[in-house]
Amino acid sequence: MQSPSTDVLRGTLDLLILKTLALEPMHGWGIGQRIQQLSRGVLDANQGSLYPAFQRLEQKGWIDSEWRTTENNRRAKYYRLTAAGRRAVGTEAASWRRYVEAVELILQTT
Amino acid sequence: MGAIKGFAARIRALLFPRTTERALNEEIEFHLEQETEKNVRLGLSRDEARRQALIQFGGLTQTREAHHDVYAARPVEELMADTRYTLRTMRRTPALAGAAILTLALGVGANTAIFSAVNAVILQPLPFPKPDQLYMVWEENPEKGWYKQVAAPANMLDWKQQVGAFADVMAYSEAFGTSTLLADGEPVIVRPAFGTGNFFSVLGVRAALGRTFLDAETWRTGQRVAVLSHRLWRDRFGGNRDIIGRTIQLDGTPVQVVGVMPPSFAYPSENVDLWQPWAWNPNNRQQVFFRRAHWLKVVARVKPGVTEATANAQLQAVVKRLQRDYPATNRVMGAGITPLHEFLVGDTRLPLLVLLGAVGLLLLIACANVGNLMLVKASDREREAALRLALGAGRRRLVRQALTESLVMSFVGGAAGIALGWWGTRALQAMQPAGMLRVSHFDFHWVVLAYVLAITTLSGLLFGIAPALWSSRRSPQDALKEGGRGGSQSRHMRRWGERLVIGEVALALMLSVGAGLLVRSLLQLRRVDPGFDPSGVLTARVEIPGARYDTGEKANAFFARLESEVRSLPGVQGVASTSNLPLENTGYSSDFTVAGWPEGTYGTEVLHRRVTPDYFKVMRTPLLAGRAFTDADRANTQQVVIINEALARKHFKGVDPIGKRIVFDKNPDSTSTWNTIVGVVKSQYQTKLSLDPQIEVFEPLTQSPTNGLAVLVRTTGDPASLGPAVRRVVASLDPTIALASMVTMNQVRAASLARERFLTTLLLLFAGVGLALAVVGVYGVMAQMARRRVREMGIRLALGAQANDVRWLVVRNGLRLVSAGVLVGTVGALAATRTMRALLFGVATKDPVTFIGVPIVLVLTAVVATWLPASYASRADPATTLRAE
Question: Does the residue A96 lie in any domain?
C-alpha cells in the first residue's frame, strides 16, 4: 500500500479493538478511525479485517453488539465491552507487554 | 453469559444465513458511507471518495468469506451440499442407486426382524415389577437324570417357609391340558393354569377388574374361583364388567369369576385362558405323595438386595435338611435357582443367536456388494476427483464427500430396510411355532431403532471406506494421464475388487454351510421312523366333565360308546383312544421293579400311557411279542400291561418279558398292584423325533380309567374330512362336551418338527438371499474387470489367441478368487458351525456332505457368474478396440 502506515500484526488487532472499546461503545468504522488516530496514523488496520475480528470477539463473549441510531440518524451496529471483555483487556495487554519486553531484550543484546 | 450469546450467534448464523448476511452487508455499507463522507470532507469528488473507501476497506468478498469462516457453519454447509449432491447423483443413476438401496434394504430388513425378536425375547426384562428379584426354583435328581425339573408341593412349601432370602415363593402348573367352559352358549375348550394363592402377588401384578387370588386360596376354601384372561373375557363374555362374581361351569364344576387380568399379562404363556388356585386339601400337607410327586414350577421373589449366591446358599441348607428329614422321598433330591428370565428364554436363545449371526453375515455380503457398486462409481468418476485435487481441493474434503455419499446411501437403504423389517417382524410372529418365542407380539422398540441406526451407520462406513480411500489416494497426474481413455485398471482398484470377491464368497459359504447343516439335520429327522404310521389318522382330544362322569365305569362306558359310534361311520377302518399322543406329550413316569429281581433293585422313569384295545392296530405299531389288549381285559380281571421295545431291551436282556410281573413302586409292599406283562410293542417316539424313545408301559383303559383321552380314527380317505362327522357323534352323545380342534397324526408329526423347520426355513432363506447377493457381487466385479481388460483381450485376439483362450483367461481369474474365498469361508464355517451343535440331529458339525457339497454348488454358481463377463471379453473385436486407441 502507498501509505507509510504499518499493517497491524496478526493477533494484536483483537487487543486494539478491546482497548478502543474500553473507552466507550462504538461502531465498526469508528473503531477503525480511533485505532488510526490513537496510534497517530502509524497503525492502519485493514478496515475489512475488522469485521471478522468483531465476530471472533463476540463469539468469545468479550464484546457485545446492538443496532443503534447515530447522531446523523443512521442505523449502525455498535459494539461494547462485556464484563469478560473488560477482564480480558487486562490479561491480553499484560501478555502483549511481556512479549514486547522480550523482543526488546533480544534487540538490545544483539 | 457472553459465551452463551456467542454460541447463540453461531446457531443463528447457521439457521438464518440470509439474515446474518444482510446484517453484515448493512454494517459494511455503513462503514463505506462513513469513509466516503470522510473522504468528501477531505476534498475528494464523491465518486473518488467512494473508490478510495473501497480500496481502504480491502476486498469485500474476502471480508465476507472471512466473516463466514468465523462461524462454524462451513462443515455443516458442506455436509448439506454433499448430501444434496449425492441425492442428485442417485436420481441421475437410478439403476445403480436402486440396486444399492435394495441390497441394503434386504440386509438391514433381515437384521431388523431378527433383532426385534432377540430384543423382545432376550434383551427386554420380564414385564413384572423388579423382575430381577424373580428366580425359578427347580429340583434335580441325578439318579433319575432329572435336571432343572418340576418340584414337589411339600418341598416348595418348605422352601417358602425356611429360606430366609426368599420374600415369597409361589408355584404354578400349566400341564393340565384343557377344560370345558360352559357359560352361556356353546361349550368351549379353554386352557387353564393352576397356581398357589400368591401366584399373582409374587409376580407383582394386579387384576384389571376385580381381584386376583387370595393367599388362603392355595388351600380348599369351599368356593372355587377363577381369574380370566383379558382375551377370554373379551371374546367369550363380550367384555362385560358384570362378569365379576358370576358363576361359570368348568368341567361341570361351578366356579366363581373373581377377576380379569390386563391384556398385557400372559404368564406362564399366551395360551392361558384362565387361572385357578389349586384349593388343595389341607390334609395333603402330611401325605407322602405331596413330597413324592414332582409337578410344580416354582418361582421365588428374593428380598431386596439379596444376591443369587446368597439365596442359593440358603436354599442348599434347606435342601440338606430335607434330605436328612425325609430320606424316603428326598435322599437324592437337589434343588437350585436360575433367574426367571434366563430360565424362560432357555433353548430359544441359541436358535435366535444363530439367526442373528446369519443376518449379520447377510448384511456384510450386502455391504460388500454396495461397496463394489460405490467403487465402480468412484472409478468412473476418477477424472473428476483428479481434476478437483489438481484444482486444490483438500484430500480430506474428498474423503469426506465420499463418506457422505456412502452414509446417505446407507441411510436411504436403512430406511427402506426398516420398512422391510417391519413386514419381516410381522411375518416372523406369524410363522413362529406356537410358543417358541415366548412373546408373540413384539413391536418396534427404541432399542431396535438404535440397533438399526448403528448397523446402518456402520454399513455406510464399511462400504464407504474403499471408495473413500480410493478417491483420496489417487495422484492427479496418474488419473489425468490414464483417464483420457477408459484405460487399463489400476492395480489398486483391482485389488479391492479381488478382496470383495474373496470376502463375499467366504461369507456366502459360511451362511450356506450353516443352512446346509440344518437342512441335512431336518432330513435326518424326517427319516426317523416314529414307531407308528401317521398317515390316514385323525385325532381329537375329548375331555368329559368329572362332575358327571365321576366313576371309572361311567367314563369307560362313554368312551366305549364313542368308539363304537365312530367305528360305524363310513370310511372308518379303526378307532382307538390314548391318554397321550406320541410326539405330543407324555403322561407321568414312575419307578418300577420286577418280580424276581434281587431285593432292592429297581428301575426309574418309566412312562405310563393308557390305551384302548385297538390302539396298536390303529397306529400300525408292530406287536413284537405276546398279545395286544382285548375287550376281555376288564377292571376285575388280571392287571396287565404291554411294554415297549426300549424297556424290553434295557431291562429284560436275554429274558422273555412275557408273563413277568411288574410293579410301579421301588419298594413294593402288600398294597402294591402287580401287573403281568402280556406283550411287547415297537417303541413309539414320545416327545420329539430327536430324542430316542424312553422306556414305557401301556395300560388298558379299563383298568386305569381317565376323563381325558385323544381319540384316534384311521380312515380310508382323507382323515381331515371325517372331522365334522366325529363332532356330530360327540354332540349326540353329550352336548355339554366341547371338542378341541381336530388334527391328523401327520400334523402332529409335523408340529413336533415345527421348531426345526422354522429355523431351517429362515436360515435357508437368508443363505439363499446371501448366495444370490454374492453371485451378483462376483458377477459385478468380474464384469468390471472384464470391461477394463477389453483392450488387452482385443490385442490378444489380434495376435492370434482363440476366443476360448480369452474366455478361459477371465474364468480362471474368477475361479482363483472364488477358490480363495471358499478356503477362507471353509475355515470360518468350521469355526462358526461349532456353536450350532445343539441344534443338529444325526449330523456332525463338520458334516463332510455339507462341507463338500456347498462349496461345489458355490463354485459352480461362481463359474456361471464369471462366464458371462468372459464371453463378453472374448467377443471383443480386435479392429474396434485397437482403433479406439
Answer: yes
